[in-house]
Amino acid sequence: MNKPPLYFPPVQDADEEGLLAIGGDLSCERLELAYRSGIFPWYSDEDPILWWSPDPRFVLHPNELKISKSMQQILRRNEFRFTMNMAFESVIHACKTNDRAHQQGTWIVDEMEVAYIQLHRKGLAHSAECWMGDELVGGLYGIRLEKVFCGESMFSLKSNASKFAFIHYVQHLEQEGIQLIDCQVYTDHLASLGASMMRRNEFLKYL
Hints:
By secondary structure, the chain is of the alpha+beta class. It has a seven-stranded mixed sheet with strand order 5-6-7-8-9-4-10, sandwiched between helices. A three-stranded antiparallel sheet has the order 1-3-2, with helices on one face. Helix 3 packs antiparallel against helix 4. The relative contact order is 0.20.
């Protein structure tokens, strides 16, 4: 018996808060379809899987990245070291287990952690890391499409560690032709780095 085709309702059917659909699964195929359609999962342990497509969308154009003078000084020091895709599983687990004062992103339940690790092994999910010596002290992860990076979550064990990873990664993505960073929903933290609101229809054009 053939599986029914994967399906999401049109994003225009989302409610005022951005909730579009309930249920389904976190298969790699469904998650990829979701991100390519401007949709992401966000729910807690007590909920079924909830799928969101808010309007407006919180995004960052890489060329509009703001770096404060104090952060520029930190970037020039040798206190931190930056890598990419060197510790994806450690990054997502740290995002799951550490408080994220500035992050309103996805609640990372066990099944979500497993699903994104599978996406990483398929080359769709990526991480950026900040190290202090051999200790992982900050990082972020998300889904990379052709022209858009969809950020999911970040963590920091040392002051400015997640900012360090974020800034270096945005600069790298810009060099590789990424045109937009999807930050999903508003946070003061990301607004201070240059993120702003974009209408959903405009965001979908980038996808």
